[in-house]
Each structure stands twice: as C-alpha cells, then as structure tokens.
Design brief:
Number of strands: 27
Strand content: 35-45%
Helix content: 10-25%
Radius of gyration: 23 Å
Shape: elongated
Largest sheet: 5 strands, antiparallel
Structural class: mainly beta
Distance between the termini: 19 Å
Number of helices: 5
Length: 430
Amino acid sequence: MIPLHHLPVTLRPDPARTVIRPFLPSDPEAFAVAAHPRAERIIARVLSIDADELHRELARVQQSLDQRHRDVPQLLARRYQSVAALVPAGADPSPDQRTLIAAYLSAEYSFEAAALFNPSAVPHPDQSGLPDGALRILVSLRGIGEGHLSSVTFRTGVWNADGGLVIDAPSQTAVPPVFDAPEGWRDGDVLALDCGGSRDPSETVLFPVVESQSGGIEDMRLTALDCPGKPRTYAGTYTALGSKGIRQEILFTDDFATFRMRPIGGALANAKGMALFPRPVGGRWMAVTRQDNENLWLAHSDDLETWQVDGKLLGPHYPWEIIQMGNCGSPIEIAEGWLLLTHGVGVVRNYCLGAALLDKDDPSKVLGRLPHPLMEPGPEDRDGYVPNVVYSCGGIVRDRTLLLPYGIADNYASFCTVSVDAILQAMETP
C-alpha cells in the first residue's frame, strides 16, 4: 500500500448557504393557456394586491433576504427586467410592485444542502503575502441541492511549506452570476457570466442558467492553462445535463469573477469526464476523456473548441477497475512525464483512485500504471448519498508531493498528501 497522509480538513455541505435564482412556474401541458402563461397570471395577481398589503409583503421579503444576501434591491431590479415582457398589456407597475413581482418570480436556493464533493484544486491566481514555501490554492466543488441539481462552488486555502493545509471559512453570502443573453443568442453560443459582486471566490456560485444545463453542472475539472504567448488563464471542463441529454462544456476565467462558458464541439460533444492537458503537446491541445463509459481515450484540438479522438488510451485491467475506468483530473506534468490520476469501478460498484504515467512527448504511450488502488473506500466511506466511493477531479504537485482533494460517498470532501516517488515506484510497466 502506498502511504497516504490524510489531512484533518473536511468540507461538508451547509444548507445555510443559499443563492437567489430565477423561479418561473409553468402550466402542465394539458392546462397551458398560450395567450396567458402562468407567470403573466401571477404578475396580474401581484398587481391586484392593495397598497397596505403590498408594503407588508415587501417588508417581509426584504427582512428575510437581507439576512443572508447583499444588494437585494439591485438583484430584484435585474430580475424584474428579465420578466418585464410578461407584465399584462396596459399595466404600468410602480417601483414597489416591480420589486414584489421580481420577488415572487425568484427563489432562495440552498445549493449545497445535500452534498459537497468531487473537488478539483489549482494554484490560486494570487500568491502574494504568503510565507516562504506556502502555496495558496483554489478548490472547485460540486454542490447538490433541491431536486438533485448540481452547481459549482469554490473554496480557497493555503498549503503550507510543512505540508499542513488550511481551508478558509466560506463567506455566508453567495452571489448568483449575472448574464445577459444578447439578441439572437442560442444555447450553443458562448455565454458570459459576471460574478463581480463576489468579494472572494467562495461567494461565487455557478448554477444552471441555460437549457443545456437545466439538469445540473457536474464534476468540474479545473486546470491552469499555459497558453503560448498569453498570460496564464484557467479552464474548467464539466458535464452539463439538459433535457436532451448530456454534453461536454468548458469555461474559461482569469480571475474567478468573470467566466466564459461554451459547449465542446466535435467528437467530445456528448462525452463525459474530459480533462485537459495544461499546455499544448506537440503543438496541439490534448485531453483525456471517457467516450464509451468504460475506457480512457486521448483526444486533440487546435483551438480548445472542436475535438477529435486519437484512440483508446487505457482500459480496465486490474480487479479494482473491471467495470470501468475514468480520469480524476487533468494530467499533471512531472519530470518523468504526465501523472494521470484515474478512477476504477470494481466489485459492488466500489470507486477507487489509481494513477498512470504517460510519456511527456507522446501521451499515447503509457509508461506505467498502478496495479493496486492509490486509495479505496474504507469503513468511513461506506455511508453517504452513493456508498463506497472515493473520487477526485484533480490535484496539485509541489516538490514531489501530491495534494489530493477527494470526495467521499458523493457526500463531502477531504484531502490527503502522498509522495509522487512512492506512486511511481509502485507502478507496473504495461
């Protein structure tokens, strides 16, 4: 067994963390009234409330929302603008009526009430003010709330020179993204999200905002991209679940306050588990993906948008991965090649973590892989939303040590460190 140093850090879901998101009830198809949609009828009822009752409702709403949210009037003003076209013809709502209409067509959503798991870690864009040898990190996590809806949330922390890890307490305020779909915008176009209202990354919540994401945003794999001739930027690949099924999407950000989202094109459009190499290899971008829900595949692209599959990279071989394999984050460049964290599904649907080493110049060449799990579910990992699961979406290597964040039982997250040399020594040559 490879010795792991489990850190005394646990991130658990907090139902008190909420975000205000759009709420737009609709009619069952058999009861739909095309000329008067349900939202229009709701607005008409709000407009019928007398002045005294209107002020009482406004006071109650503001008292409730001001306890956990900032800039509530501005948020509700933006929400009203997004539904103003539904106001019945001839009506001219007062400012107070507009605010109450927006409140009725909004909902407070506890985005991590059920689970907070499947983390991915990258170096934070701001490394200032740290003691020697310390590294500030940024962690993305998958939160699950009402309706099993997945969103993305973030944490920050410091990995100290002595190996200790401190994760900053998250803000009690969460800020929804602001976006404006331009005229003629389609669900496959680039979507710009502005989270500039967040005072630190823990306040940023990326919840589904378009139809292709309506069922959730799952398992983001973050990586810091080294783009030739450009400042470092960050990319995150994730699975978007919509009414028409799954699709692979990608976001880019320089500061974790503004984001650009777009779907992946080409052969990876409807795949899952895409993980980018952090820099071009042989003059082109590369990625590891899971095309068939069983094996790991290698793909390439000239522009990070349209992808082609090169071929199968790794398949199930050892008992702990007999059912299927997947990646656990972007390949990490080390002196010996690319360290690829993997997961394997085995007996009784246990999810274990593994690793492989790929050639630095030709990642299609597998130089080694672990015959036994790097990490497997223990007694403490058997209870949760999905029992018998340990899973990661990406770690960081510093000075031959891997910091590995991982989810447990699709419920909460923890961290460990492990020697890169110990991982390599335990590998077998294919």
